[in-house]
Request: fold
Amino acid sequence: MGWDGTDGLYDDIGAIALCDNLALGACPFNSSSYGDEENFDKHFGQDVNDGDYGNPSSWIGGPSDPSPFIVLKFFGEVSISAIAFGRDNTGVAGDRNIGTYTVAVTTDVDPDPFSATFTDVGTITINGDTAGFTGSLRHQYPLSTASPGCAPISATALKITTSPNSLCIDELEVYGPFA
Reply:
């Protein structure tokens, strides 16, 4: 499945039900980070699901990494219907969002984020802002055919691999079955 970015449903962060966000209880891992490679004080992997929004609490893959990724490892198997993220959910920073994000999951028991068998479930391609769409703001993307009434995807970990141009993810959110 693929999204061109504009397929995502925009949600204002004031309307987010954080208690339903499965990512808040997950353990983040990353292949690289801008903060580590550039000796910078932000953009680390642990920031991607810390519950804080905005540029200082975001993850950017390391600039020398040809295939940067972030993994959220869940404690056991979960059911996922949608993910949500933006470059800067507060709307302040609008750079580092144009590119491709590949979404994958694994059901490996206690998966190693670096060697588990991940299966791609879709790609999100953001080509910039268009009429009615601001690519840097938070959007929600249903996984597979997940929408009200459709079956969620089972996963023990979720992985997003980004284009090798230092894309930024602010507060990756993961949601279970739709009500």
The chain has one helix and eleven strands. Residues 12-16 have pLDDT under 50 and may be disordered. The first strand starts at residue 2 and ends at 3. The longest helix spans residues 34-37.
